[in-house]
Amino acid sequence: VQEGAMIQDDFEEIGTAAQSDRGTGAYVPVTVRNTAENGQSPAHGFQDAVAQRGFQDAYQTQADRCGYNAETGDIEVVNGDRNPCLLLVVDGEVVNSFGMDPGLADSMAA
Q1: Considering its fold, how many domains does the chain have in total?
Q2: pLDDT tens digits, residue range 36-62?
Q3: Three-state SS for 94?
Q4: Is residue 67 part of a domain?
Q5: What is the pTM of this model?
Q6: Residue 17 contacts residue 28 (beta carbons within 8 Å)
Q7: 92: domain range?
Q8: Which residues are registered as beta bridge partners of 68?
Q9: Cβ(47)–Cβ(108) under 8 Å?
């Protein structure tokens, strides 16, 4: 688990959740600040974290899922795979977990 890959202050704008036009699932549009205090874009650090954790290999189809178990805090096997997850944490508590759209995972790895 990498804590704080992105924090609230890293976002310029956080949109409203909406249903995806490309099938099942939802998305939240966001705009990340261009630079952090240390001069590096928070988006760059997030992209590196996504690539290092293998999101591109884990999320190749719309059927691939995050198997985060809120009761145990573990990432469990779903459809034969234990895929990495994005965790939304508020005040130290995981309030939601997400996989990643295959197209976004591919673009993050490039």
Answers
A1: 1
A2: 677 788 888 889 999 999 999 999 998
A3: strand
A4: yes
A5: 0.80
A6: yes
A7: 8-109
A8: 75
A9: yes
pLDDT at 24: 67
* Spatial separation of the C-alpha atoms in residues 52 and 4, rounded to whole Å: 15
Quote the tokens at residue 42: 């928070």
- Of 23-32, 79-88, 90-99, give the lowest mean pLDDT range: 23-32
The conformational region for residue 39 under phi > 0 = left, psi -120 to 50 = alpha, else beta, is left
For residue 72 the two structure tokens come to 């145990």
Other CB atoms within 10 Å distance of the CB of residue 32: 19
Q: How far apart are CA 12 and CA 33, in angstroms?
A: 5
Position 94: which residue type? Answer: V
Dist. CA 28–CA 100, nearest whole Å: 12
Answer yes or no: is 2 within a domain: no
Q: Do the domain assignments include residue 3?
A: no
